[in-house]
């Protein structure tokens, strides 16, 4: 009856019954409120929500406050796309089994120091796309098991020095697209397990050597779209495990190397969209394992021989969108690109002088050496040819043994066919010999015996040999006009056809 005693007590002072402080009584009241539905046997899902086992979905329902009647056994709660403005202290204390909580796309403007007290098992917290402009220094001290925290797309301008203290298991931290102008010293000192840090799209102007102190496991760092004007790699020696560094679209004019040291782990560096005019060879000498380099949209005019000689591990490079001087100073870069075998975007336009940059031919591919493959190919080909010939001979032999009459018949037909072809060729040879036709023209005398002489075949005549083949297979008619007087002394025109065929 301790709760009844406290409820019945007059709240005149800040001290309540049994000497308990006021905030403990408030916590007990919240726990009691959450336990009442269980005592009455009520396990209903909150109105306008959807429950799936221990997961409660309350998205896009227009909630102004966190709904009631959420089961204490809830492990996942989604309150996305609502109108939440304020979160009370101990707001989720009765949900001590909660593992993830999504409250992005609301209207939350601030978070108190005790909002997440009581949810120590929480591993994922998403508060992106709100209007959070202020965080208490101890806001996240009550969630030591947090693995992922998303505060991107808010209105944060300042981070407190101890903002992330106690988050030793945090692996992913998103602070993209806020209004941050600086990062406090040792802000991530206790984030020893952090692997991903996004500080892009802010207003950061400078970094200190202790900014990333403690991030021994960080693998990916986003600093793009800020306001850096100079980057010194001396600031990053603490990031001994970093794989990718994104610095694109700042205002960087120079990238320097302070102290000589070697950054063995960095594999990807993005410096595109800046104002870099020259490349310091010392920067790339400290990056022996760099594989991807993006230098697009800067103000580079040439690259020195010392710089390109340090690109010993690159397999991808982007150089488009610079102001190249295509004089003799560009020769080291062109020579290096000729031998580069990796992926490249080298749409290079000369700004001076006015003659074009020598084209970079594609890398020559060496033909495969034949000695490594010729032996087994010869063996395989020989075996295949042997089996093919053997199969053909076997089929012929089987057919010959099984159908001897058919084989003889085929042989006879082939002989007959040859004879026919031989006979058909003989007439063609005879026809090819030139036929000679003799045409006789007779000019009879004006005597009465002319017709008789012509009919009897006596008398003199003249024969003309013609090589014409117009009458092949027939007789060609040669008209020969003459005139003769008959008994009635009338002159009549007659045509005599006389045919002579001489076979030679």
TrEMBL record:
<keyword id="KW-0433">Leucine-rich repeat</keyword>
<keyword id="KW-0677">Repeat</keyword>
<dbReference type="Pfam" id="PF13855">
    <property type="entry name" value="LRR_8"/>
</dbReference>
<keyword id="KW-0472">Membrane</keyword>
<dbReference type="InterPro" id="IPR032675">
    <property type="entry name" value="LRR_dom_sf"/>
</dbReference>
<keyword id="KW-1133">Transmembrane helix</keyword>
<keyword id="KW-0812">Transmembrane</keyword>
<dbReference type="InterPro" id="IPR003591">
    <property type="entry name" value="Leu-rich_rpt_typical-subtyp"/>
</dbReference>
<protein>
    <submittedName>
        <fullName>Leucine rich repeat transmembrane neuronal 4</fullName>
    </submittedName>
</protein>
<keyword id="KW-0732">Signal</keyword>
<feature type="signal peptide">
    <location>
        <begin position="1"/>
        <end position="41"/>
    </location>
</feature>
<dbReference type="GO" id="GO:0005615">
    <property type="term" value="C:extracellular space"/>
</dbReference>
<dbReference type="InterPro" id="IPR050333">
    <property type="entry name" value="SLRP"/>
</dbReference>
<dbReference type="InterPro" id="IPR001611">
    <property type="entry name" value="Leu-rich_rpt"/>
</dbReference>
<feature type="transmembrane region" description="Helical">
    <location>
        <begin position="378"/>
        <end position="400"/>
    </location>
</feature>
